[in-house]
Amino acid sequence: MKVCVIGGGASGMMSAIMIARKGQDVSLYEKNEKLGKKIYITGKGRCNVTNATVGNEFLKNVVGGQKFVMGSVTRFNSNDTMAFFEEMGVPLKIERGNRVFPESDKSSDIIKALEKALRWASVKVNLNTSVEEIVKIENKVTGIKVDGKEVSFDAVVVATGGISYPATGSTGDGYKFAKNLGHSVISPVPALCGIVVKGEELKPLQGLSLKNVTLSAWLKEKIIYKSDIGEMLFTHFGISGPIVLSASSHINRQDFSNLKLVIDFKPALSVDGLSVRIDRDIIALKAKQTSSLLEGLLPKAMVSIFAKRLGVKLTSKANQLTKENRKALALLLKNFEILPKSLESIEGAVVTAGGINLKEVNPKFMKSKLYSNLYFVGEVLDIDAETGGFNLQLAFSTAVTCASDF
Question: How many C-beta neighbours within 10 Å does residue 10 have?
Fold first, then answer.
């Protein structure tokens, strides 16, 4: 059987490898000059290749398409991914949050391993080759069109990714192919991206990093997301960092006019516990200024913002703060509100939410319900997950699931 795989990213390479290992004649088409351009920049160039959690613990981190990918991540889980790369000669390590990286901290080692597996499986790799169209007759695809010429295939796998980081080749080609074939596409939105905030209050905080905090998202008065304890960063446009990226994936289809974000600076303490600490700190400071109290609780850059929100003077004596002031400080440390304006543009998002409508794809084999020999894998589907290696694992899992039909 002649099989065409469109896209040389994580899901495309893994699909091609696994289908070829089934004895099929596989051709991989990539419009870039090299394979795995998006893999190369993942994990800040270190490549967070998967997350060492499985089963329900893994699925908890899937935001879009959780039920759809359940079978895939059971069939080929993170343990399988780690075994694959270690068998291909890439030693791995597990870091905080069960994030898995190559020991070398080089994403190029992951790409080289996939390229080696492609060679060993005798996959024909066509670089600098743009697929213009998928050709069909009735309910079957018959091949692809390249340079205006039709190339015949018995099956076609679409692994073209989303539309984030277009410089890596993710420019929405798969959506165009799908629509031309009668498939519907859920409108793409950014996921795992920074959040633009309203107003000028936080501008002086640019470059400030917060550690051991949590971030929650509230729609009107209902909490819709709360992060684990982690890190975040203030930027020129608002906020970013690991817990912000994850939050963005939970709010990207919400009405921002009814949305607020809340930072908890002291997640290990309750409001009452924090009040006790504040009273203790004030006693220890004796007659020192309120600025000294706040500097003991917060990064220095935050102090003036807190004082303004509390309505207290930094030059006043800390021991002159009223009972109400102290309670208000404890509450603000636990509930520092930020009003989001929008998400960072999709071009800068780590992944794309939205994509091929999952109702039109059979999750057992990633097969189109409209065409018996057409498949969709990876980010081109309407699936996405939180940061930490989960999205690459979804790419590998859906690829292996697709290959199981050959």
Answer: 31
